Amino acid sequence: MIAFLRGTVADALPQCLVLDVNGVGYEVQVPLSTFDALNPVVGQPVTLKTHVHFRENGQTLYGFATDAERDIFRLLIDRVSGIGPATAVSILSGLNVNAFKSAVVSGDVQAIARAKGVGKRTAERIILELKDKVGLASTWEAQAAGTTSAAASDAELALVALGFKQAEARKSIAALVKDNPAATTDELIRGALRRLG
Description:
5 strands, alpha+beta, five-stranded antiparallel β-sheet
């Protein structure tokens, strides 16, 4: 799997970048939020966090400016029924990570439904499945209320996106934060993977 790409922008369109990585051109689909954050210019160096999606008739490479964006993308395609990569990119194009979390926590169907290709029913399903089945809304509420750190919340989201159960991820992260309250997201993820693996 390709975890990230670091290269020079060879071509930049609003939802597609071509990166020249040591003479190989990678076409990467990106949400508008990533495009806006990077503001890519031909010839400029760029690093993208990536996700490779395999289908029976090919594969598509998706790129994101941050780990948090990639984690939300993976969460949507892996944990919400009926959401594919194109819809997940559309959602991230319309809402940044914090706005998406806020919409799920507050049950703001309209905010999510504004994304291209996402209707009211799909938005309701996203909120329902992320709140009730995955349970991440409670973590995001705690982060908004200041009772948990952004690093702990992001680490938990990353672990859930990797397929761990939320209860296990939360317990492991809580133990690590207790030992080291100033731990970064990366440190928490690594520590939790050691504990859970």
